[in-house]
Amino acid sequence: MNAHLEISNLVKKFGGLTATNNMSFDVARGESVGLIGPNGAGKTTVFSLIMGEHRQNSGSISFDGTELTTLPTHQRINRGISRTYQVPRPFSEMDVRGNIRVGLMPNSIWQMLTKRYDPDRELELALSVGFAESDLDKAPSELSMGDLRKLELARTLATNPEMILLDEVFAGLTVGEIAQITDLLQQKREAGMSMVIVSHDLRSLQPLIDRAVAITYGSVVAEGKYDDVIADEAVRSAYLGL
Amino acid sequence: MISKPLLRSLIIWAIFIIGMLLLPKIFALLGFSKGNLRTLIQACYLAIFAMSWDFISGRTGYISFGHPFLVGIGAYTTAILSYRFDVPVMYSIPIAVIVTMIGGTLFFLPALRIKGSYFALVTLAFMELMYQLVQVIRPDLTGGTRGISGIETLTRGAVNGYYLAVSLMLVIAFVLWAILKTRIGTALSAIAMNEESVKGSGLSTTKLKLFAFMVSACVAGIGGAFLAHYNGSIAPRALFDINFLFTIIVAALIGGSSTIIGPMIGAFFLTLLLEKLRPWLPGAERYFVYGGIALLLYMYQPKGLYAIFWQVVDRFRTRRGGQS
Amino acid sequence: MFQILIQGLLLSGLYALIAVGFTLIFSVGRVLNLAYGVSLMVGGYTFFYTAQVLEMPKLVGVLLAIVVGAVFGLLKYRLLVKPLKGDHVAIEISTLILAVVIQAGIILVFGDATKILHSIIDGVWQFGTVSITANNVAAALGSWVLILGLYAFIKKTHIGRAMQAVSMDQKGAAISGVEPDKVNAATWVISGALGAAAGVFFASYTQLSPSMWVAPLIIAVAIVIVGGIGSIIGTLIVAHIIGFMEIITTTLFAAELRGVFTMILIIAVLVIRPRGLFGREEL
Question: Is B208 on the interface with A (CB under 8 A)?
Fold first, then answer.
């Protein structure tokens, strides 16, 4: 197996609640996978387990053949995997530029002390996610939901990831903003970036993914081509209520 | 190759430094007594402790209730070394600073790894427990409940003492300012805003907090050690004390947390205020009035006098702008 | 041995009450109330004033202390915690400042000197070589009555169950129609009342002084760090661990060394199991 990201038999319990139950799936290098399922199915939990924000009770997560389980979050990010959050988490008292600056920082006290930040790189990243140059001085409180998601994306991309995990990227966006983000993600896909995308907006999700993985109650119930997964009996009953 | 804002900051620094160094002369001209100068010396040390506290707590939001603990280690180490073992001050102070950094880290590292509230709890518990310990463990060294007096002093006279304290304060302020000018400053502030997102940017927040804590402990150790050699005496209840902790925190907050100038403003404001209140309110009333003022001010503007000053300036500017 | 067992049980009961009042706010409101020790002091001084200065019946003194403690808790919530909107850092700091202000206030009213509180119940019982004051037994029993009362309150009443729900999941509780404001206010009132009662017991154990708020706060803090938040039973067990540890060090080594073992225990727990021995993992 040469899976880029390999999730196997992941179990995570919060007290009496089982968030992921023997969940397994793989993502190949350069592949884009859509993770679908009803609320509380365990999608966000998998992301936080992959990033090491929580530790699974059992099962393994490996990235490029390296077991991630014992690594802290920042080391996983430095290995090339990064995520966005359903509710954007900007640094509220910093402008757009400052937020991106934190994303670009090296994890080394010495370099932070001795090397200056790179304003050109900050600008480049901001423009690449669709900000205008005049947006750089804006505070997060002045931004729309779409802009906040762009900011989150910029900070995530600033860590130079090979794979990004996107949690509800389209929630709360206008049609125009959805189109903008979709364009950006398509560009990244073409550039070879791997993705796992969680979204309730199936229509926007469909063109962005090579493959869908459906989960309910913390386990994978179907995976394969988007159309096949959506047509699957178990998925329809659990997710679409049909 | 100096940018304009940097040049402006440097000019403000220069004016500030000259002003602080000339203060004794100004005091002499205005006819204040030596006692007033001694008050200023206490204010300088308080400013050092407040800056030290602010470097970790004001920046990262990890509230340390254990700064008296750090100051205490610094003061006790140099006092014991120089008084009991006749170690020259030029060695005992640096050793004290290193001991403070190592000791503080050993005790607080476990708490730095977990969430903010626990850090506050652990530091508070350790400060109080240390107060108990220092009196019973090797009282032949620590002087037990009574502490140590007759410690070698570094300077003679209030004027020299002032110059030493103020130089120390200014050097520390400048170094801290320079550190916070770099990306470290941005990263530390980011921790206070959203620690998860800092981790999510690929940074080890434990490493950053540890760095901030070490710098803070270093400054607290320097302040504690020099203060011991200025006062010539130390006592457990004066160091490991909630009222001392309260004074440090209030100085930082009243002046303006998360700035360099703020804790200094706060320290001088409070020390002078306490001194002015003394004739009318000789005892506990002072803490009552002063704590009450601090609480109201904090509830009104958590960012302190510095922020209030800029609020007023801004209001004034917009009003003038609106008229023209 | 018998002496250690009896004294340990009595002291631990009191510590359990002290810790429960503190951890209640930490688990329901997710904030640290550093003025908690002041609730104990307020309770102790109220009892002193009614029972010893005004010479009213002692029971009236205890009840009045509880009422004053409850009102004090409510005031803290309305005037400090609510305006600060759950900002942890601001609440930690402002409750600390408040504690120092009230300490100064107590000195203004009652003076700096320590005061000896008369026993709530007089008498000494002799068990072989061991003698126990009736007062300490009453304090421990009173503590247990209040703890069990609290437990029943949380399990049986509507507002108690709402408190439990909020402590487990704030957002979820809000969705299911619990009013967080009311629940928080109730928590502060109960914590204040428990603290005040604990203060009367604690002061009758030791003595009354304007700085008496620090020691119980540190005890509560240590118990919360070691036990973790979210479990009353866990808090009770850890209160007994720390209570017994103190009695054992006091009898076998020296009273002043009590703190050392508490410190070692805190560090060990933080290193080995950061969420505390009985704490649950946050969702």
Answer: yes
Domain assignment present for residue B143? The answer is: yes
B266 assigned to some structural domain: yes
Is residue B124 less than 8 Å (CB to CB) from chain C?
Answer: yes
Which residues on B lie below 8 Å from A157 (Cβ)?
Answer: none
CA end-to-end span of chain B, whole Å? Answer: 37
Domain that holds residue B294: 22-323
Paired tokens of B34: 């030596």
Number of domains in chain B: 1
Q: Are C81 and C91 in contact (CB under 8 A)?
A: yes
pLDDT in tens, C170-217: 666 666 667 788 888 999 999 999 999 999 998 888 888 888 888 888
Best of A14, A45, A87 to substitute, by most chain C Cβ atoms within 10 angstroms, is A14
Residue B268, C-beta contacts closer than 8 angstroms, at least 6 positions apart? B40, B43, B47
Segments making up each domain of chain C, as ranges: 2-209
Residue B16: inside a domain:
no
pLDDT along chain A (242 residues), means of 10: 84 82 91 88 89 90 91 92 91 92 90 88 89 89 89 92 92 88 91 92 89 89 86 75 54
Question: For C122, which DSSP code?
Answer: -
Q: Please check whether residue C85 touches A, CB under 8 A.
A: no
Which residue's structure tokens are 């966005």?
A84
Nearest chain A residue to B192 by CA: give it. Answer: A91
For B298, the token pair is: 């904090």
Q: How far is C280 from chain A (nearest CA, A)?
A: 7
Query: Measured between alpha carbons, how far is B134 from A72 in angstroms, rounded to an integer?
Result: 38
Residue B224 in domain: yes
